[in-house]
Amino acid sequence: MKQFPSAMKLPKNLRSPPIFIQRSASASLCAAFAAGMLKLKGEKADSEKIFAAAQAGDLAAHGGRASGIDAKTVAYGKPLVFQRGFSPPRFVGRAAGFSLPEGTALLLIDTNRGKKDGTSMMLEIFASQFGVHGPPAEAKEEQRRKIREEYAPLWEKIACAMKGADAKTLGFLMNENHAFLKRRKMSSDGIEKAISAALCAGAHGAKLTGGGGEGGAALALFDKKETGAAMEKITGKTGFACHEICLAEKGACVD
Questions:
Q1: 217 has which bridge partners?
Q2: Which CATH architecture has domain 19-245?
Q3: What is the pLDDT of residue 100?
Q4: pLDDT per position as a tens digit, 166-183
Q5: pTM value?
Q6: Helices (DSSP H) in 62-188: which residue ranges?
Q7: What proportion of the chain, given as a percentage, has pLDDT over 90?
Q8: Over the range 160-180, which residues count as b (16 or more CB within 10 Å of their CB) and which as e?
Q9: How many Cβ atoms sit within 10 Å of the Cβ of residue 64?
């Protein structure tokens, strides 16, 4: 097993652990709408304006619990290292410099069969395990510290591997990240079924993505040449739809 140095330290003036992400949900619709409205108004649709509008919409969609991760990512359209500050409120994102290992692809496995746990509910479940009740901004620093301390060792591994991870290493980190989320009750029977099927089909690693819970989705890393056969195996075993996805090259805009 590859060993990772632990040299990277979390900045003390930011109040959430860094999160490496390339994802979207309701924020995608909000960002696209914002880009269109700015175009109609004759204003330049820069990424920060789109982010601000998308975040406002995402807050409404998630009952005031939107982290800013989704809105920031779809506004900028690239993998980001994201950190959120609370006093004062800040949303810091920088380019991650990440690309998939050569010859690999990501499969998205959709476990939604009609019932979907809401993101707001799943975040409440996660936060409650650390004694956090109510909006994230109302959490005490001691409560945030407990979350950071649990996640920080994994983040250090991700940060060290981000710019040059091979398929085996990235898959290992995906599995470790999922174990953390599962331990904090973010997974579901459907997601566990999807991940098990993906690993049996030859995935280097797999993890839940998005809000998790019933009807959530999972990501699995495969050798690209194996994706067609893997999708057939996973769908045949679970009934879940699979989609090969790629990393975005630009954010929300009007072409």
A1: 110, 209
A2: 2-Layer Sandwich (3.30)
A3: 92
A4: 999 999 999 999 999 999
A5: 0.82
A6: 69-76, 119-128, 141-161, 167-183
A7: 43
A8: bbbeebebebbbbbbbebbee
A9: 13
